[in-house]
Amino acid sequence: MNARRIGAVAGLAVLLALPFVTPAYFLHLLIQILLWGFIYTAWSTMGRFGLVSLGHGAFMGVGAYVPALLWNYFDVTPWLGIPLGIVLSALLGVIIGYACFRLKVVGHYFALVTLALGQVVLLSIVAARDITGGSLGMTPRSIGHSWYALQFPDKGYFYAIALLVWLGGLLVWRWIDRGIGREALEAISDDEEAAAAVGIDVTREKLRVPPSAPP
Amino acid sequence: MYLNPESVSGIGVSLQIVFAAIAGGMYAMLGPTVGALLTIALTEGLRVWFGANFVGAANAIYGILLILFVVFMPRGILGWLEMARRPRAGRAPAE
Q1: Chain A partners within 8 Å of B26 (Cβ)
Q2: A64 and B CB contact within 8 Å
Q3: What is the pLDDT of residues B41-57, one digit of tens each?
Q4: Which of residues 88-117 of A touch B (CB under 8 A)?
Q5: Residue A171's pLDDT band (boundaries 50, 70, 90)?
Q6: Where along chain B do its domains lie?
Q7: Are A40 and A57 in contact (CB under 8 A)?
Q8: pTM: predicted TM-score of the whole model, two decimal places
Q9: Which of A92, A122, A48, A82 is nearest to A200 (CA)?
C-alpha cells in the first residue's frame, strides 16, 4: 500500500521533471501519449463494463469542433467553449445511452449503434462544409501567445495541460472504480446511461486538446 | 493547430481507441495509458523507420495485434501482469 503511494509520487515527480530534460520532439510524443492515454482511459470507463463503443470519435468530434467553431466565428474563449463542448458531447452520450438503455440495446448491437453514431458525426461535419471546412478540416484562428485563447508558443504549456487532463481522467476512473455504482454497473450492464454519461464526459474534456496540441 | 473530421471522428480513430484500451488493459487504471504508449510508439516507429512507404501499416498491425490480444491476453498487458504476479488467485472474477 505504502509502496504504491511512493511509486505514485515518484512517477508523478518524473512526469513533472520530464519537460525540462526532454527534446522538443519527444516532448511532443509525451503530450500525445498523455492525451491519448486520457482518451483511452475515458473509453475504458465504459468498455470495462461491457459497453464497447466503436464510435468514441463522435464525442471527440463534438468536443473538438464546438470550441474551435465558437472561437473562429464568435470569439468565444475556449475557457467557455471547452466546457460547452463537454456538455454537448455528454448530452449526445446521454441521448444515445438513454435510447439504448430503454430499448435494451446491448453487446454487439450497442457497438453497432456507436459505430453508426461516429459516422453520423463524421458525415455531419463533412456535410456542413461551409461552416466546418468539410473534409479539408479547419484551423482555429491563431492570435499568438494567449491564455485567453489557450494558445501557447511553447510545448511545455501543453504538456502541463495534458498532464492535468490525464490525471483528471485517472481520478474519474478511480472514482468510478471505488464508487458504489461499480458493482451495479458490473452486475447490470444495463446501466448504459450512467456509464455513457460519465465516460463521455471524460472524453469531452480531452477535446480541448485536439485544438491545442496537434501541430 | 488543425482539425480534420477524419482525425477526430474517423472510424480509424474510434477503432484505435478500442485497440489501445484493450491492449493496455481496460480493467487497470493505468492500462489505457500503457495502450497509449504502445500505439504512439508503434505509429511513430513505423513513421520514422519506413517513412511514407507503409501508410496504413500501423492500422494493419493494430488489427493483427488486436486479435492476438483478445485471444491470448483479453485483460491486456497490465491485466496479464497482474495475474502473472499472483498466479494462485487464478482467473479474476467477473470479466
Answers
A1: 43-44, 47-48
A2: yes
A3: 888 887 788 777 777 77
A4: 114-115
A5: confident
A6: 5-89
A7: no
A8: 0.82
A9: A92
